[in-house]
Specification:
3 domains, Receptor-associated Protein, 3 strands, mainly alpha
Length: 409
């Protein structure tokens, strides 16, 4: 088995063709290769040395952070802007990297730049990082390079990434508020049961009378919580970790969970609209890029974000490959709204499928936005009622014996 090539970061200084002093960083195996790459770029290297490493991994420089999808979206948009402005591709990488704070992303950009500078295609350089750049992005960039329209294709990729990020942000917004509120409610309830109610319990024992049924229930619940709270917390953590691990490692569990989420009232409708919006946006982008429809549908199947719609798109791909019109194949799946099917039909007949799908994507992205607002408006009073019943119920149950004593007096 061949050893993985180890690269290091080098800092360099030199003079470009205009006689201007320039400097930068480059990832490579040794300084000789750095000098060779610089000469290919028309730079006369004067000084090349390894970038200093901070002692014990800490120092004044920026720390490495995980590269998020939003970072990739930023990189794509910046590259589209640079290339559109007429900046040479290799130089664009340096300019974009200079404005990046994430050291991990900066290093990836330098690696892509070095690969492109050594003669590889931009798409081939992106494919060396499959965990960061999905197949759809690589295919679109490759189509742009082959057609000589890299400038416009990068812009399409950037728009696709931005729309996707916006859609994800809207769904996260809808889920974040209830999730945090329920977690806080669980924590507050546990604190009441473990710390607050026992002090009331000591007072109740001095009364010598029988406690009301709600109070007795809460006292029994408190005793259980005091005895088993570590098991409760441990069990909650184990369930949480096991759930997300199953989502990552078990395709069947993930598929069943995604299908089950579609049946949840209100939230299921939001997920359906988001899946349709992704389908229309990605298919519009790929088809406009000149990707054959069957190949475009293959890419779309991995981008819709739900197993039911993924399988539906794969069925559409098979039907289209056998010669059936796409809108008929979409109708046969029975998962796409009639409006999208009709717009697809008009697009096929008029030869403007990408335009019609783009309009459908815009409509359903707006629908997702409205659904998020409606969901938030619906959830807020429900959560307030839930908190009132749970927390308020505990407090009222604790004060019932005191109220009874007051009425007896």
């Amino acid at each position: 088995m061949a050893k993985a090539t180890k690269t290091s970061m080098f800092v360099w200084e030199g003079v470009n063709r205009r006689g201007q002093a320039v400097k930068g960083e480059m990832s490579s195996m040794n300084s000789a290769l750095v000098k060779a790459q610089l000469r290919k770029q028309g730079i006369d290297p004067k000084k090349v040395k390894k970038a200093p490493q901070p002692l014990f991994g800490i120092g004044g420089g920026p720390k490495k952070k995980r590269i998020k999808s939003s970072d990739i979206t930023f990189f794509t948009r910046q590259m589209a802007t640079m290339v559109k402005s007429g900046v040479p591709l290799v130089q664009s990488f340096d300019i974009v990297a200079d404005g990046v704070d994430n050291l991990s992303l900066k290093q990836v950009i330098f690696e892509i730049r070095d690969s492109v500078a050594s003669g590889n295609d931009f798409a081939a350089a992106l494919k060396q990082h499959p965990n960061l750049f999905d197949e759809l992005t690589c295919n679109l960039v490759e189509s742009g390079e082959q057609a000589g329209t890299l400038e416009s294709m990068l812009d399409k990729v950037a728009i696709y990434k931005e729309k996707t990020e916006a859609l994800k942000a809207k769904i996260k917004k809808a889920m974040m508020y209830p999730t945090i509120t329920l977690m806080v409610a669980f924590a507050v309830t546990l604190v009441l049961l473990i710390k607050v109610i026992p002090s009331f319990q000591e007072m109740f024992t001095s009364f010598g009378s029988e406690l009301p049924a709600p109070t007795q229930f809460v006292v029994n619940l408190s005793e259980l919580a005091q005895q088993y709270y570590l098991y409760i917390l441990g069990g909650a953590v184990i369930i949480f970790v096991a759930f997300f691990q199953a989502l990552k490692t078990s395709p069947s569990f993930k598929d069943n969970f995604e299908r089950g989420m579609l049946q949840v009232p209100v939230l299921g409708d939001l997920i359906r609209k988001a899946a349709v919006a992704r389908y229309a946006r990605v298919l519009s982008t790929t088809f406009a890029a000149g990707v054959p429809l069957v190949d475009a549908l293959e890419s779309v199947s991995g981008a819709v974000g739900n197993s039911l719609y993924r399988d539906a798109v794969l069925n559409i791909r098979d039907d289209v490959a056998s010669g059936q019109q796409m809108h008929l194949a979409m109708r046969a799946t029975k998962v796409f709204p009639n409006m999208v099917v009709q717009m697809t039909s008009i697009g096929e007949e008029s030869g403007a499928l990408d335009t019609m799908l783009g309009k459908a994507a815009n409509y359903y992205e707006d629908e997702v936005d409205n659904a998020v607002d409606n969901l938030t408006a619906l959830i807020e009073p429900m959560i307030m009622v839930f908190l009132g019943v749970v927390i308020g119920g505990l407090i009222v149950a604790m004060y019932l014996p005191i109220f009874q004593m007051g009425s007896a007096i």
